[in-house]
């Protein structure tokens, strides 16, 4: 394996880990952040968030994406789901370099 691929893999793993941390600590719609066995609960959403970050999506787009997950995938009523502009701001602080 060449060094460039190793660095890309390390970079991707770091970014995924950081997204996972933010989703668990700041989003956590099902309140599992204190449950060690649920550390990977939101991993299926990391790719979508990563894609939004890569294309420099707005805070509103990221917030809407998280809301849509809660409404369409988790079954929450739209009026139950807050906006996640603060979470979006935190996600956008993740360095993609």
Structure, described:
This protein is 59% helix and 0% strand. With 97 residues, the protein is mainly α. It has one domain. The radius of gyration is 14 Å and the shape is globular. The chain is built from four helices and no strands. The two termini are 21 Å apart.
Report the count of strand segments: 0
Average residue pLDDT: 93
Measured distance between first and last alpha carbons: 21 Å
Tell me the domain tally: 1
Output the helix-strand order: HHHH
Overall geometric form: globular
Short description:
The chain has helices spanning 3-27, 46-54, 59-73, 85-92. With 97 residues, it is mostly helical.
Indicate the topology.
Elements: H1 3-27, H2 46-54, H3 59-73, H4 85-92
Task: Give the key terms.
single chain, about 100 residues, mainly alpha, about 60% helix, globular
